[in-house]
Amino acid sequence: MVSILFVCMGNICRSPIAEGVFRALAEERGLSEALHIDSAGTTNYHAGDKPDPRSIAVCKAEKIDISGQRSRGVTKDDFENFDLIVVMDRTNEANLLKRCPEDYREKIQLFLPYIPNSPLKEMPDPYYGRDEDFEKCLSIAQKAAQGLMDIVEPHLI
Q: Which residues are the active-site ones (predicted)?
């Protein structure tokens, strides 16, 4: 089993979308049983909360249900327990690297480099934006999830 943790700041917008998209892709490819997928935030601001209603709505439009997710913060155990920790931006990457034991630092990677030839390196945070910003976030997450899955899948079979 391969375990992947998606991380943003509050775990209510970007990382829940990424988790939902990647989980849906795993189901589509028949790989759900071979993957442990979760998301978390670098802060606990929204601990226990559902994803932002706009995140839920854009995912629902793609028949992806993230309404059952609940925000949580990254824990010390996450660094050991997950094979890959996928971060949405450099600020959250830096925050994780400060907290991460040296032995696990290579597990932390940015999400968007999984999109081949993408000029984007960081997932834009839609929180203070409009609905269109959440739609853009979903579209980017779908492309990055595809690239990540293409790399992960051969290790599952």
A: 8 (nucleophile), 14, 125 (proton donor)
